[in-house]
Amino acid sequence: MNSLERYRSTVAGEPTDILPRVPILMQFAAEHIGSNYGAFAADHRVLVEANIRCLDEFGFDQVSCISDPYRETQGFGAEIEFLRDTVPRCVMPPLADAKDLSLLLSPDPLVAERMFDRVQAARAFSRRVGGRCSVLGWVEGPGAEAADLRDVMNFLIDSMEDISFCCELMDRCVDVAIAFAGAQVEAGVDTVGIGDAIASQVTPDFYDAHVQPREKRLVDAIRDMGAWSKLHICGDISHILPGVADLGVDVLDVDHMVDLASVRDAVGGDVVIAGNVDPVSCVRQGTPSQIRDSVARCYEAAGNPFMVNAGCEIPAGTPLDNLRAFCEPVPYQR
What we know:
Strand content: 5-15%
Structural class: alpha/beta
Number of strands: 9
Largest sheet: 7 strands, parallel
Oligomer: single chain
CATH architecture: Alpha-Beta Barrel
Radius of gyration: 19 Å
Helix content: 40-55%
CATH topology: TIM Barrel
Number of domains: 1
Number of helices: 15
């Protein structure tokens, strides 16, 4: 059973030989090949090479097109500054000072520079490792992208004072996300990740009424494309789990502070849970033995279907032996 077969079987709820390992590698991967985060985010060739060399060395089961949250933001018209050793910076959110959707460009994923760079990453992965392992594409969720365009604080204020504008902006973001996802699926990804970090910061009522239906439209569109969907919300999602459970996602990333047994109770047995080893205190700062124990505890709490993952990105500076321990094969338990 190769990595792609293992991944497919897990999503289908079928037994596998070992659990798929799907760590998120960004700055770590860039620095591991002697590059830097700025180059990784700016040039798909660096991103692809870093992922594949880590794939070959550490033996996990999925490569990823993810780098930062500002691909679509640049397409909408924002200026993005690349920094050598940290996440790119949005110089000025396009709607920071105005609630005017006409200020936004209408990005074409095959024309907008940073969006097309991700599509090129998907094509390169498909050409080099397609059929061997899973290839993960990525889009920003409706809340996250709206917050990137409006500024996080403005978006949160709007969520209380101007819900109508919030919803119009999120609708525009979903339209672009669907087109962007489609371009990546056409380029060869089998799964599209949806990053919607701001969703953990809104109230359950706002999430259920306004964010969740737009996430669901995106999830349904990805399914109609013939791809799988993966939801990644940084932070504690305990308060929005009922809405998350109704999305119909194939894979749910879970951050380290969330109780996995509660997540399983909420989403049922058809959703793959991926997580949720603490990426800092355990993966980066712990020992290989502690990492193995944490992976085992996560699997015991979540049950099948399950994929090995940390709560978020594997941090830069993680000892190589720690990542090797994290990626060690874990037998599937019936």
